[in-house]
Design brief:
Dihydrofolate Reductase, subunit A; ten-stranded mixed β-sheet; 27% helix
């Protein structure tokens, strides 16, 4: 019986090793600011099962998810996703931390939590493996900002709404150049609209979800952006792992 986390290229061949997968997702020039988004979707377009994206995950998706975190300088996530998906006390495993240090990276990438309102609990932020970053706005409540600054580094990007162009620039200035975004759909919509998405890694889970689940993008207005397929991988259970790059302008 095939390993449920086994991954192949669509042209078949031997299962890909972790090192082969890391090489296939690596960005050629790590010095150039790069924002990668990572999502999972059912084949009928649902981004969640029973309200969380984790409900659509497969073993192969989880494997790639972990490897993408290995490659990141920073993990970017919206505060709504932190609350909904239960992001708490997150740390890469020992194998991943060892791999990162062997590549000259910090053992643990920090999390950058995006919130215009600063509706976060300082106690939750204090449980991360490394001091987190909080990306917010100039107009966020001053008292909330003061409380958050006790446990996190606060980055101001935008006035009333978070400016993801400024966020990408400010993170890169801190040496956090390879930016890995894990949602959610509203933050991703803003990133698309503001033109900062360089890459989308999309897992297509082999199931029909039905219902009224959200898509991976939640926006009122369309903001089209052409992408090109960099690779397509598959798993024995029918999971597709797609990597798209920003198309040449």
């Amino acid at each position: 019986m095939a390993d449920a986390s086994e991954i192949h290229s669509l042209s078949a061949g031997a299962p890909l090793t972790d090192e082969q997968l890391l090489a296939s997702y690596a960005v050629a020039d790590r010095s150039v600011p790069w924002l990668r988004a990572n999502f999972v979707s059912s084949i009928d377009g649902a981004a969640t099962h029973e309200g969380v994206s984790g409900g659509l995950g497969t073993d192969s998706d989880g494997r790639v998810f972990g490897l993408l975190r290995r490659l990141a300088d920073v993990i970017v996530v919206g505060a709504g996703t932190v609350r909904q998906e239960g992001y708490r006390n997150l740390a890469l495993d020992a194998e991943s931390a060892e791999w990162r240090t062997s590549q000259g990276l910090a053992a643990q990438p920090p999390f950058a939590i995006v919130t215009a309102s600063l509706r976060l609990e300082p106690g939750d932020l204090g449980s991360y493996a490394t001091r987190p970053l909080v990306v917010t706005t100039e107009s966020a409540p001053a008292e909330s900002r003061k409380r958050i600054e006790e446990v996190a580094d606060v980055i101001i990007a935008g006035d009333a709404a978070v400016d993801t162009v400024e966020m990408k620039h400010l993170l890169a200035e801190r040496g956090l150049v390879q930016q890995h975004s894990e949602g959610g759909p509203t933050l991703f919509a803003t990133m698309i609209a503001q033109g900062v998405v360089d890459e989308l890694c999309l897992t297509v889970s082999p199931r029909l979800e039905g219902g009224s689940a959200r898509r991976i993008v939640d926006a009122a207005d369309a903001t089209p952006q052409n992408m090109s397929l960099a690779h397509a991988l598959s798993a024995p259970d029918g999971t597709l792992l797609l990597r798209y790059l920003r198309a040449a302008r």
